[in-house]
Amino acid sequence: MLKTFIKNEFKNILRDKMTLILLIYPVLIGLLLSQMSVASSAEAKNFIVIVLSILTGYIYGAIAGFSILDDRDDNVFLSLSISPISLKFYVWFKILFVFILAIIAGFLLMVLSGMFKDVAFYKLFLISLVSAFQTIITALLINTFANNKVEGFITMKATGFLIVFPIAAMFFLDWKEYLFMFAPGVWAAKAAQNIVLTDLINAGMVKMNFSFIVYIVLGIVVNIFYVYFFTKLFYKKNNI
To answer: What is the pTM of this model?
Structure first.
């Protein structure tokens, strides 16, 4: 059954041209960034990669969110309620399927860009993991506050505003960064920034509030809380 579900999800994604473009964009952007002029500063390149890595989780969240919204419009939820397949299982399969794709996409974006050549792969994976939690949160938010595609686009734009906070937080290394840490994507951004500033940190020229691993751990904890909270809201809204 799981194999059939995976096949169907790939078919659903590949038949929509817009979704297909969103799916492969990290590879295209990563390759594009790798060809950027050497005249561009390393700091500028890394900043762009970090922003795009954060954006990946949000975009894939929109893919998952609208996929579930389509099923609701097609009364798939109603059909599943009288079938042997658990509705919760079905919803979480779709969300986690795209969540895994988001992790892979974020990882590929950073690797293909060629801007993190000296960074261990496990660190890039951890950043991609924390960033990908936005996929789950965005998908849940869209299907909690939207009843149709029009409302879905409005909700998606509203949740997109959360991306502003991780970007803004990157300009602060002191106590001011705490003001932005309620946003899900902040933790991945700050962990990535810690990598970018490693040499300066080791030289004692720059100091950040936390180490790389602390940003990652706190990011996982905070995002799991958000996932739990919005899951409860989603279940309540959809009577699951």
So the answer is: 0.87
